[in-house]
Amino acid sequence: MAPSAPGKRAQVLDGKALAARLETGLKAEVADLKRRFGKAPGLTVILVGDDPASAVYVKRKVEACGRVGIVSREVRLPATVSEDELVGLVEGLNRDADVNGILVQVPLPPHIHKARVLHAVQPYKDVDAFHPESVGHALIGDETMAPCTPQGVLLLLDAAGVQLAGAEVVVINHSNLIGKPLAALLINRDATVTVCHKQTKDLKAHTRRADVVVTATGVPGLLTGDHLRDGAVVVDVGITRGADGKLHGDCDDSVWSKASWVTPVPGGVGPMTIAVLLQNTVRSFKRKMGILPAPL
Ligand code: GUN
Asked: Any residues with CB less than 8 A from the CB of 51 and at least 6 apart, and which?
């Protein structure tokens, strides 16, 4: 792990470095799979519209595939694409034997019913783990295809040496993408989990008791040192581009003088989300080849 920033007490929980280590392992694994089966895992990423942030995320995912040897394809569709066309594309990819993972980048344009599209992805190829069947598997403890950002958070906590069994963990987010699946993974590790959100009456009353705080509000500076007990571990999933053009997390600077470990933004959770996506694509391939068990 990288040393603490000067003048700060917390150590940097370095997602960029951890993701690079995971990629090294995945690269060797992909090379071995290619030798054994004559082909590499394949991921197709669908990007609808021209949201600049989504375009950057998709570019990073495709580049990461290239680094580890996963065969990636990016399908770009105009924002005017119909829901039926998009679902038809996903169904075609479900049938394509060379595609092990399908990822539909969200957000989607407002005229498209997001759930219909995400639920069209065959659970075996659901490398985002957004399908209700994938969510259900994670909930009951089968984490072979774990949701990317929540699993990335857990890998970061492991790297910081956090003992989750019995730990008080506060998650500030209750979305289907982050808060709910993360709570499930934490419960699977016997953490005591509190999920907070916009309607939570007294956020500090919860966060001040926490050993670990995971924040994903998208409100820069929302979490301050005053929210924390001394030595808490903070994982910042928030990512907002400020008027200064820079990326900001949810943490105020004061967090760094109270916590023991903090993830930076950028360079914390973001690279880990991508590393888990690669891992899921490899796992999907291994399931298809019969060298990883099918879902329970
Ligand atoms: N948009 C922001 N994060 C994600 C993600 O992890 N997966 C998909 N599909 N879209 C996203």
From this structure: 107
